[in-house]
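User: Please predict the structure of the protein below. I'd like the answer in structure-token form so I can feed it into my own downstream comparison script.

Assistant: Understood. Taking the following sequence of 437 residues as input:
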Amino acid sequence: MAGDMSTSHQHTATPGTASPLPRLRVRTQRLDEHVDLLARIPADVTAVWLRHGHGLIAVGCAERIVTAGESRFADASSRFRALAGAADVEDEAQVRGSGLVALGSFSYSAGSPRPSTLVIPEAVLGRSGDVTFLTTVTRDGSAAASTDWRELFGPTPPDASVAATVTPDHTPAAYQRLVAETIARITAGAADKVVLSERSTVTSDDRIEPAVLLRRLAERFPSTWVYKVSDVLGASPEMLAQTDHGRLFSRVLAGSRVAEGGRLSEDERRAFRADPKERSEHAFAIDSVTSRLGSVAEDVTASAEPFILRLPGIEHLASDVSAALRPGVTSLDVAAVLHPSAAVSGTPRDAADAIIAELEPHDRGGYAGPVGWMDARGDGQWAIALRLAHLRGPHEVALQAGGGIVAASDPVVEHAEALAKTRPLLRALFGADGSAR
């Protein structure tokens, strides 16, 4: 069973040091039957990446790469590429996500005490287009625990609602005072935009099952990128860096409007699209992406006008960016260049991050950092870890969400937006019959 895959090999990547490379043996077989990935998220799942029923479910750990500091992206990329270069890979599926892959979560701040992690799983059940596949990874010629996908990936645990207590870091008035303080800093010229976030702790006497949360998120928000890596889990609507055979795609969200009735009316949508405050916030975010891509890409183009991305209860101004990658550039290289964008930090970046560090009571950990996966060629997908839950144990998670603040922001509206962005996780936690105290 997947629970038998208990061996974990960890390497801490430190600049200027070298350690022996294990030889990984990677085998991907194409499966004849269609597999519903949402029904095969086992209780001991290591990592998940799902969208529209496609993606990757991973168990076990053949190798773990742990990094920290300013060089965390480069150190992780270097170690993984070295492992990939020494690996023995047989891939009969030859589709996106097959062969050798690593799934990762990177901390928002270079100074975070939380490490950044890349995991090479022992087994991956994946689906790309019409192809379903199983990848197994062993070290130094050791035998695989199993090549039966049903044995490796047990059924998703049964649905169960939980009763829980939700405790935000701030009262509504206290959070609104923080927003007002941020607006005052912006008005005084300390920054043009700052993204402030709020954290809430959820505790329950019932066991909180990550696999159940993941399935619920994937069912309810199929157009988002549903993820779990390390201690973070969530459903992100924002793609930081997706690369495929030399092409780059990035989706930028900035500017949000809470939809009280579930969806904005056409009049509300027109007003939202034309709102100078929302357009200004969005322009900062687009510029923070396009202006940084010159070192890794060329022929950069962005949506001529932002479009509205509709999610249950909230709608966003969105723009898509595409470009041609420069030779040798990986998806993780792009994520490192773009992180953090103005959509999650602010403008100017250093000034905004200084204000965030002063006003937010906790280190962000994995919140708003890149989360995703990369293959041996360097192609992959790195979303921004939003709509996030920090997994603290079987009975506790911490939810985190926020929004961009500019001079024209309103503290009450910003507080409502932060609350709206936690609802997907709260609904996934409590289920249809769950309740919060």
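That's the full token string. The two ends are 37 Å apart (CA to CA).
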